[in-house]
Design goal:
The chain is α+β, with helices and mostly antiparallel strands. It has 15 helices and 16 strands.
């Protein structure tokens, strides 16, 4: 036997038992997003490399060392999307969705980054992303944050903490950058190799360094908040006021700079302490310059993306199961011919009424069928046999509670399940 081929490191299979929880999160997200008027958009997984260079930024970690870039057969440089904002903006411009209009869009799907894999960090991972165009005022920033907070509530996820910051306009940031570089140069001896490299390319990222030896130096560095332009300060103050009024708790983190270059003004992250080092579950912000930078008419925009791997891991840690999406009833069949035909017909009828039913195909003993029923996660086993058939009845066993079996007439089945399933929530 030859050696089995394995998946690429950092790229995971998603198995049916995991996907029930994924589906639950995806469906909940879809309905929360729809409640705010966001509509789905789909765009390719592969784009021209140039798109990511121009949007995410030449000297970011993503573009410098994490992209899956290759030449196609025409010799064009293409890249597997490392994130969704760039592709969404490209699609928006190309299809005339952005000019002079308000658009609220969402997308979902796989993203690719050649990072060092570890818990919560993968090379293929999945995002649900949201992008809104055409609104410059901070009520949009507040809407995005409120919408994400509603999603955590709808999912029953607890303990996520919100961090916000303002990066100001590009001009304010450029002025601050010079002040920061001057400061860091005065302390060049104390910097580590990574920070020295960033000093010339992307000095704001030095503030993000996790190196404990640098924390004192970073804490004493000049703060971006002291160099923001007046309009950005006012924008940020209004956002905070809207969040306060809505009762959303947050922490201002002056060191939150994000790893993508397109942001201006608001940036935010939802963070958990329960997942170890990879604590950012959802992140985003405003990017008012990007549409123009990618060749469209100047259009303000803001958005966020959540990481589905991290969110499902957190949901699983908090014991939120995906069983809600699994079968409610498992149909067991004891016999062939008429019994089987009746069972199939009854199962079809109950599905039409809205029940989720797993049907036992292939026969076998009652014991083995009930074992499968138990494993399916269904609440009830619905059993069809010769004796019951004569009276147009079936037997129901509650698989999750210690209760006597009941015999129920076919035309009472739906009432029975409706009442019992409702009673247990
Ligand atoms: P990002 O912070 O790079 O932002 O990614 C957003 C989220 O995707 C992260 O908070 C994390 O949950 C998840 N994520 C990122 N990288 C990985 C990875 N290697 N493995 C697992 N999960 C990961 C963006 O991508 C921006 N496009 C967000 C945005 C949309 N900003 C404005 N609009």
């Amino acid at each position: 036997m030859s050696k089995a081929i394995q998946a690429i490191r950092g790229m995971n299979d998603l198995l049916p038992e995991q996907l029930t929880l994924w589906h639950r999160i995806e469906h909940t997200a879809e309905s929360v997003l729809a409640a705010y008027g966001y509509r789905e958009i789909r765009f390719p997984i592969v784009e021209k490399t140039e798109l990511y260079r121009r949007s995410i930024g030449e000297v970011t970690d993503i573009v410098e060392k994490e992209m899956y870039t290759f030449e196609d057969r025409n010799g064009d440089s293409l890249t597997l999307r490392p994130e969704g904002t760039a592709g969404c903006v490209r699609a928006g411009i190309e299809n005339g969705l952005l000019y002079n209009q308000v658009q609220r869009l969402w997308y979902a799907g796989p993203m690719f980054r050649h990072e060092r894999p570890q818990k919560g960090r993968y090379r293929q991972f999945h995002q649900i992303g949201v992008e809104a165009f055409g609104i410059a005022t901070p009520d949009l920033d507040a809407e995005l944050i409120l919408m994400s907070a509603r999603l955590w509530r709808a999912l029953g996820i607890q303990g996520l903490e919100l961090e916000i910051n303002s990066l100001g306009t590009a001009a304010a940031r450029a002025a601050y950058r010079q002040v920061l570089v001057d400061y860091l140069r005065r302390h060049i001896e104390e910097l580590d190799e990574d920070s020295r490299r960033r000093l010339d390319t992307n000095p704001l990222r030095v503030l993000d360094s996790k190196n404990p030896a640098l924390q004192e130096l970073i804490n004493a560095a000049p703060s971006l908040a002291d160099h923001l332009d007046d309009e950005s300060l006012e924008h940020f103050a209004q956002l905070r006021d809207l969040l306060d009024t809505a009762g959303v708790k947050y922490r201002i983190n002056p060191r939150l700079v994000r790893g993508l270059d397109y942001y201006s003004r608001t940036v935010f992250e939802w963070i958990t302490r329960e997942l170890g080092a990879q604590g950012a579950v959802c992140a985003g912000g405003r990017y008012d310059g990007l549409v123009e930078q990618l060749g469209g008419q100047a259009t303000p925009a803001a958005g966020f993306a959540l990481g589905l791997e991290r969110l499902t891991e957190l949901a699983a840690l908090q014991n939120l199961s995906g069983m809600e999406g699994g079968p409610q009833v498992y149909v067991a069949v004891l016999g062939n011919g008429r019994v089987l035909r009746t069972a199939l017909a009854q199962a079809e009828r109950l599905r039409s009424e809205g029940l989720r039913i797993e049907f036992h195909c292939g026969g076998g003993s009652l014991k083995s069928q009930l074992k499968r029923a138990d494993r399916s996660g269904a609440r009830f086993a619905l059993m069809f046999g010769e004796n019951e058939l004569v009276k147009s009845e079936a037997t129901i066993k509650d698989l999750r509670r210690d209760a006597p079996q009941e015999t129920v007439a076919f035309d009472r089945l739906m009432d029975f399940f409706r009442t019992r399933l409702r009673a247990s929530g």
